[in-house]
């Protein structure tokens, strides 16, 4: 896997993935940014949410669950000192669908956390306290 990150202006950078997708990252205005995109640490958090969401949704679809929506809500805490690394991350999945079986949702979240989500497992290996939860909403 490869990516490039090119300086745009101020503290703004354009990241491009090997597959040709681009995203702008920017800093806060007090550091010269224009708030044109997420901060790099926000990108890490969003990437972790995307990785885990992919796992959870794939497993639920394979188990023939009628999923209409899957939202990963992430909340992170960072160290007060430099480097301001993540110290805690909680990821809560809100899964909406028809007649969803709790056992399938619970298993999908657990397998993502313990076996499949490379980003989440990497964060834990680096000492981040990563926790997971889920809510099931029945669609009407």
Automatic annotation (TrEMBL):
| InterPro entries given in the database record | KH_dom-like_a/b (IPR015946), OsmC/Ohr_fam (IPR003718), OsmC/Ohrsf (IPR036102)
Q: Which organism is it from?
A: Dasania phycosphaerae
Q: Where is the signal peptide?
A: none
User: What domain of life does the native source organism fall in?
Assistant: Bacteria
Question: Can you name this protein?
Answer: OsmC family protein
Taxonomic lineage: Bacteria, Pseudomonadati, Pseudomonadota, Gammaproteobacteria, Cellvibrionales
């Amino acid at each position: 896997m490869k990516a490039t990150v090119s300086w745009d202006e101020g503290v703004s950078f354009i990241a491009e993935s090997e597959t040709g997708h681009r995203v702008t990252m920017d800093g806060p205005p007090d550091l010269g940014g224009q708030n044109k995109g997420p901060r790099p640490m926000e990108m890490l958090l969003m990437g972790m949410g995307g990785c885990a969401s992919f796992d959870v949704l794939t497993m639920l679809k394979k188990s023939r669950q009628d999923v209409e929506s899957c939202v990963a809500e992430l909340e992170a805490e960072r160290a007060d000192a430099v480097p301001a690394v993540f110290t805690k991350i909680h990821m809560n999945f809100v899964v909406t669908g028809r007649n969803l079986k709790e056992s399938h949702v619970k298993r999908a979240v657990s397998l993502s956390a313990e076996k499949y989500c490379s980003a989440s497992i990497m964060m834990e290996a680096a000492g981040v306290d990563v926790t997971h939860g889920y809510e099931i909403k029945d669609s009407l």
